[in-house]
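[Automated response] Your request has been received and processed.

Submitted sequence:
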Amino acid sequence: MVDDSGQLGMDDAEAMFRGAFEHAPVGMCLATLDECRWTHINPALCALLGYSEQELVGVGFAELTHRDDIENNFEGARRLRAGEIAVYDTEKRYLHADGHVIWVSLLVSLLRDARDAPRCFVIQVLDITARKRAERALLT
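Generated structure:
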């Protein structure tokens, strides 16, 4: 419900956020600051990776990341936590549940509390596998 100032009430704002998260056309998740473990995963990310939400909750990103991309991701998370960057933007590979490689464009930022303290990572994942295949085909 919108109040007299035109603002949504807290319950309405939370419901809208949840709806946007659940229905986003790109993969999204929230992850812990310490071990980068996924706490909330939207259906688009589950479909992209081939796992259910229950299978992904508590999983660290490194468990599904191609081994050659893990160190770069840890460095990006460290730089975000340290305040050196506001957004970590990279291309990387995930491993699908059936074992094939998925190329993604990854955007990671921090969700902060009312006191501006970091609470968790907000991660957006866009499948770019088709683009990567086309680029590789042009090079051969």
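Summary generated for your ticket: The mean pLDDT is 92. The beta strands are 27-31, 38-41, 88-95, 101-112, 118-127.
If you did not submit this request, please reply to this message.
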